[in-house]
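[09:14] KT: can someone run the structure on this one? pasting the chain below
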Amino acid sequence: MKHHSLVYQQYQISYFSAGEGEPLLLLHGWPVNHLLWQAQIEKLSASYRVIAIDWLGFGASDHPTDHQYTFTAKKEILNQLIHEVVGINQLVSIIAHDVGGPPAILWASENTDRVKQLLLLNTVLYPFSTPLDRLSHFSFSVPLLNQFLVSSFGLHVLMRYIMTKSGNAQLSDRIREILQAGRHISTKVRLKTILEPLHKGKKKELVDLAQKLSELQCEKHLIIAKGDPLCYAHMKKITEQYSEIPAHYIQNCGHFIPIDQPEALNEVLLQILKTSKKEQS
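[09:31] RB: done, structure tokens below
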């Protein structure tokens, strides 16, 4: 896996690539980075050119305190990444998890002819639609409590014991490795990256996101873990509203599917990707 960077405004954005062939973008969510996708990169790079970004504020990318971490800003970063790295004349498949989903949908809605497939894993789709959404947002707004929640220890507890279900003994080590890559990021930035996109999204970006997804004229798939305490309600709601979008379920799995059930996810991803009906231009 090779480490690259591009400049967005005045900031360095890191991305990582492996393999050759059709471009496949992996977009992580909060509070992780490209290492979330390690098992998928290793598997998929045998057949695809896999590109995994570290969003601004995460991993090896810059983490400015004065940036507004909105979904629209992420969409603009994604646009620059695709323009510079993939090229303007090639179709791209996008796999997005958690809050990586909204910018993927926003970008795809403006560039439908560029998208081969859009695959969404346990994604935020509605503005504070459940009691847990509201409780989580409130918790990250309470002084002292929010500092604990975004500490390395607090994040490990959240990821390992609340947001994942697998009994795999290696899971704790994988979580520590992922979080270690973001150890240099300040508490202020960690809070901004979770609060700002949801706060601003509630007013604008998330309001019609599900409808934008339903109207996209490209192949779409939902990959869902029923054990996800946070986003399952979002995914279930969209399957009920738009039953024409294929849904694939991962068993015994929580929010972080790529590390919770990596082999099961790889099997589903390969099945979807290899049955695409849209040809590369």
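[09:33] KT: thanks! The beta strands are 2-8, 11-18, 23-27, 49-53, 92-98, 115-123, 219-225, 247-250.
[09:34] RB: yep, looked fine to me
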